[in-house]
């Protein structure tokens, strides 16, 4: 054996020894990790038992850093979040625990309860069923299943489940509560209260049971016992002001105002260092005795506790709400003088700056913000307000760094995200603006502001369908938000999406029957269907709901106009103008009424008044142009529209109307240019694309490039389902030589409308003639020519018809 062989063996053994050592260390480390994990978990549970959830949460997080699949740690974290009423985080924890351990009964029950509370009944039912498959007599699962069935209206099954739960545990909290709710729903109020009394006796510190019992007593007319339960709540949780507020509201409702005030003052006496009970008393005083009582009470309370700055801030806010802006500013200055650069002093500077901003005193606001940011450079409120000022000065480049700093400190600040979106849009960075708004939506999914901003951004970008989807998405979460309902309705109205608008109207009437919007939309739908007298009645209801609403009153006037009740229409509009003499919509409508009655001079005077009052508003220019068209003065109509386009910064709708006017005047090339300009900024404007495609197919039918452009536009109309747009597509297909495609498209369009318009009869006739189907061609072309209607291609229809007739005679 060579020396080299002998020397190599020890090295090999060292390698194996090293590997073995690594494995041993890993094993030891693993054991250490298990021990540490258990120690962290045990310590977390001890802290929970000691009433320290904050530190317990940290220990449980340590467990999950070592073992992310520790189901019990996820469950305990969820319990902590549930106690904080952070339901989203709690659900996530329970969900993770169930995912890791599907037979984790407690986690499934907790998740099921949250799902039930969120209205996801079927998912809650699935969790209850999963638990009952593991433990058929689990009372919590039986009660949960029963609660779902009760919600779904199956009271018999709910009763059986409640009784089954109580058979297992006669004092079962949810079982008693469920059975009480079922009895209440069945009209057995006294039995329901007896069940709640039994539950409260078994669970004396349960707040929800006490509340339900108080409501039960109140429904039976036993105010004394209801009051007793509300008073017990203040004893069970003396630090929870909501109980004091609820008791005070109940006593006030019962006419016992002195007792209500005493309850509020007891809360103050029990917590003299806390400003919140005092603010609750002030709020009550304002509601019961008016704002001046609140002012006097705050002065008294501030004098007693001059360093409770929340009272001073409330003082300033109340003064501002009363229009006493100077007094509000004096209070903020007093806070600054007293607290200087402390937390309250900085907050007061920001509030002062906000008032200055609202009053357009930007330099003063910036000086105050500079003081705040010098002391606290990460102050989110100050950074955000400084950015808002920059945006009002058209300085997005200055705003963006401040907004990014603010979001670094508070990533879910919806105000900062919305301002950031505005800044990016000002810089024409639309995708970045959309991204910022999406983050704002994710941060506050139940708040409408970011959804409305996103919808407006999409509208300005020409994406009407996307804007509708955003608003509809919000209404799925919050179906009764009036602002979003109104925005969606206006969008649908602008797109003439009547089916969608009908769904919106029905939803509003269901969720907000006392709001005028649903009746207004229903009135418009009835107008559109020609049911004018019915629309009058519905619109009157909308006006009754809100007498100062503009749109229903103007819509009512239009219904009167359609019924030829010109005097009623004029009276309706003038009644509104008596209250709002400069309202542009009302002035325009009065002009329309005059025009419909043949009073053209008065109509023109109305539209001229609107133009002089609102030169940036496009509507009066279009109406004035319509007057000139009716008078046969197309050049004046065109010049009026051109003037409006310049005044409004090239408003897209006015440019579209100019295109129509130019086309009607036979100035096709200029019309094409106008339509193309609109489509440059609004590529999804179907009405414009439709007009341009048809114009190109007619005016430039022998130009391959124009026909190619027409086909490009028409293809975008293929999925519309609207007969007008399908007619255009079919005609462009015909002009482009796709005769079979044209036949299919035009016959589909003709099947959607009765009677078939003369222009579509012409189009079908030309297709039939090209296919040699002469009889059908003659029938369609004869109907088109004899209709008396004027349409592009009328001469071509006559010539083709004559040719078919000549061929027929020749053949004979």
TrEMBL record:
SUPFAM superfamilies for this protein: TPR-like
Taxonomic superkingdom: Bacteria
Annotated keywords: Repeat, TPR repeat
Swiss-Prot/TrEMBL GO biological process terms: RNA processing
A Pfam family it matches: TPR_19
Repeat as UniProt keyword: yes
Ranges occupied by TPR repeats: 71-104, 139-172, 584-617, 652-685
PANTHER family, A to Z: TETRATRICOPEPTIDE TPR_2 REPEAT PROTEIN, TPR REPEAT-CONTAINING PROTEIN PA4667
Name of the protein this chain belongs to: Tetratricopeptide repeat protein
Organism of derivation: Thiorhodococcus minor
């Amino acid at each position: 054996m060579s020396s080299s062989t002998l020397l190599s063996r020890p090295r090999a053994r060292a390698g194996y020894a090293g590997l073995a050592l690594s494995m041993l260390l890993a094993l030891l480390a693993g054991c250490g990790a298990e021990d540490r994990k258990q120690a962290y978990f045990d310590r977390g549970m001890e802290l929970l038992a000691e009433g320290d959830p904050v530190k317990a949460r940290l220990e449980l997080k340590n467990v999950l850093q070592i073992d992310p699949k520790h189901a019990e740690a996820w469950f305990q974290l969820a319990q902590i979040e549930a106690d904080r009423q952070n339901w989203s985080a709690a659900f996530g924890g329970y969900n993770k625990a169930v995912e890791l351990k599907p037979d984790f009964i407690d986690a499934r029950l907790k998740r099921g309860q949250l799902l039930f509370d969120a209205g996801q009944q079927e998912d809650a039912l699935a969790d209850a069923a999963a638990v009952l498959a593991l433990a058929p007599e689990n009372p919590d699962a039986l009660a949960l299943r029963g609660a779902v069935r009760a919600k779904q209206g199956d009271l018999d099954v709910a009763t059986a489940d409640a009784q089954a739960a109580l058979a297992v545990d006669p004092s079962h909290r949810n079982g008693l509560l469920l059975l009480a709710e079922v009895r209440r729903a069945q009209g057995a109020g006294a039995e329901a209260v007896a069940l709640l009394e039994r539950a409260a006796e078994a669970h004396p510190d349960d707040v929800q049971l006490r509340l339900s019992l108080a409501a039960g007593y109140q429904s039976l007319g036993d105010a004394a016992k209801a009051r007793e339960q509300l008073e017990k709540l203040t004893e069970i949780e003396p630090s929870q002001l909501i109980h004091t507020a609820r008791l005070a509201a109940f006593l006030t409702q019962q006419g016992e105002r002195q007792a209500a005030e005493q309850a509020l003052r007891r809360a103050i006496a029990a917590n003299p260092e806390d400003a919140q009970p005092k603010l609750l008393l002030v709020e009550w005083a304002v509601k019961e005795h008016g704002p001046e009582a609140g002012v006097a009470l705050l002065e008294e309370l501030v004098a007693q506790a001059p360093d409770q700055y929340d009272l001073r801030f409330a003082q300033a806010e109340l003064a501002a709400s009363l229009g006493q802006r100077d007094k509000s500013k004096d209070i903020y200055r007093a806070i600054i003088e007293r607290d200087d650069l402390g937390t309250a002093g900085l907050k007061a500077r920001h509030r002062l700056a906000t008032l200055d901003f609202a009053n357009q005193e930007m330099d003063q606001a910036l000086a105050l913000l500079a003081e705040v940011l010098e002391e606290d450079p990460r102050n989110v409120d100050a950074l955000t307000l400084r950015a808002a000022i920059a945006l009002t000065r058209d300085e997005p480049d200055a705003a963006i760094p401040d907004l990014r700093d603010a979001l670094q400190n508070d990533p879910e600040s919806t105000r900062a995200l919305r301002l950031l979106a505005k800044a990016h849009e000002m810089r024409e960075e639309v995708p970045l603006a959309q991204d910022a708004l999406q983050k704002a939506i994710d941060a506050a999914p139940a708040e409408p502001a970011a959804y409305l901003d996103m919808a407006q951004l999409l509208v300005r970008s020409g994406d009407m369908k996307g804007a509708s989807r955003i608003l509809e998405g919000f209404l799925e979460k919050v179906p009764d938000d009036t602002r979003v309902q109104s925005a969606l309705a206006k969008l649908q109205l602008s797109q003439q999406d009547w089916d969608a608008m009908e769904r919106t109207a029905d939803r509003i009437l269901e969720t907000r029957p006392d709001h005028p919007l649903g009746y207004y939309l229903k009135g418009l739908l009835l107008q559109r269907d020609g049911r004018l007298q019915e629309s009058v009645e519905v619109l009157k209801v909308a006006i009754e709901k809100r007498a100062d609403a503009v749109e229903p009153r103007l819509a009512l006037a239009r219904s009167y106009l359609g019924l030829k009740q010109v005097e009623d229409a004029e009276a309706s509009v003038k009644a509104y103008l008596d209250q709002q003499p400069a309202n542009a919509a009302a002035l325009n409508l009065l002009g329309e009424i005059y025009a419909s009655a043949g009073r053209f001079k008065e109509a023109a005077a109305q539209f001229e008044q609107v133009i002089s009052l609102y030169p940036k508003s496009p509507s009066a220019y279009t109406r004035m142009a319509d007057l000139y068209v009716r008078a046969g003065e197309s050049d004046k109509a065109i010049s009026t529209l051109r003037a409006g386009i310049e005044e409004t910064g090239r408003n897209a709708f006015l440019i579209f109307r100019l295109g129509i006017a130019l086309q009607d005047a036979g100035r096709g090339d200029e019309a094409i240019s106008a339509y193309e300009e609109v489509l440059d900024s609004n590529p999804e404007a179907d009405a414009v694309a439709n007009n341009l495609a048809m114009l190109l197919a007619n005016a430039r039918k022998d130009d391959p490039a124009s026909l190619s452009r027409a086909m490009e536009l028409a293809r975008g109309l293929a999925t519309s389902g609207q007969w007008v747009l399908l007619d255009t597509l079919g005609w462009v297909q015909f002009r482009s030589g796709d005769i079979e495609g044209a036949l299919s498209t035009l016959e589909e369009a003709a099947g959607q409308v009765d009677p078939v318009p003369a222009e579509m009869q012409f189009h079908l006739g030309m297709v039939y003639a090209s296919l040699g189907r002469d009889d059908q061609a003659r029938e369609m072309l004869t109907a088109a020519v004899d209709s008396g209607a004027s349409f592009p291609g009328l001469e071509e229809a006559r010539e083709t018809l004559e040719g078919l007739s000549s061929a027929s005679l020749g053949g004979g």
